[in-house]
Amino acid sequence: MKSRHDVRIKRVYDLPSEIDGVRVLVDRLWPRGLHKSDVKMDYWLKNAAPSSDLRHWFDHDPAHWDEFKLRYRHELSEGNSDIKKLENLMKKGRITLLYAAHDPLHNHALVLQKFLDEQDI
């Protein structure tokens, strides 16, 4: 999926591609079943992911999706050094946000991508 600022998202389990640009894992926890040597990534920005409390509350339940988006966007709007790092990477070219969730329609990378796309940079 492509955005205005050329921020894409991809499951961490999918094969890397030459067109991915800078690959950034944006999960707080290391993806299950993968060794660090298995993942082609340039950065692991744990603090770009939802807080542990929010992640546990959401629990990948689509019934919580709308509220999860609001709460996560609130966390993102508070900012941190990992969000700033993503914004700086966006200025330089394409980035691909890597995530481990199984559901392609209800995951934090979608929210993060949209949030980054809306930034005025």
From TrEMBL:
E.C. number(s) listed in UniProt: 3.2.2.21
Key words, A-Z: Glycosidase, Hydrolase
InterPro entries linked to this entry: YeaO-like
GO molecular function: alkylbase DNA N-glycosylase activity
The organism's place on the tree of life at top rank: Bacteria
Pfam families to which the protein is assigned, alphabetical: DUF488-N3i (PF22752)
Protein name in the entry: DNA-3-methyladenine glycosylase II
